[in-house]
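FORM 7B: Structural annotation worksheet

SECTION A. Query
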Amino acid sequence: MSEESRKMAKLAVEALEDKKAEDIKVIDISNVSVIADYFIIAGGNNSSQIQALCDNVEEKLGRAGFPARQTEGYETANWVLLDFGDVIVHVFDKENRLLYDLERIWRDGVQIPVEEL
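SECTION B. Predicted structure
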């Protein structure tokens, strides 16, 4: 896991916190998958907030030189995936977060307290 991916994860969390994301979780998946180093999972209250959260993450990481490689689900905004390569950000509404339960699916990863990034 690189210092760069840790920096990306920290910036993403800060961007989510700026827009009042709920229940932000950071999962280090570097030892269980090759797709990324970190999954960041957060919640929003409605589609407008979810889009604002995603916009802020993209803007903050983009300004730092980490443009999103791919974005999925932005239009419907019930589960948006932002792929930054080593960091993948998932922003859910309450219903879909419970339904997909990524924290359980990726429980082999290590949850990192946000303040330890």
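SECTION C. Observations
The CA atoms of residues 41 and 101 lie 10 Å apart. The radius of gyration is 13 Å.

SECTION D. Sign-off
Analyst initials: ____
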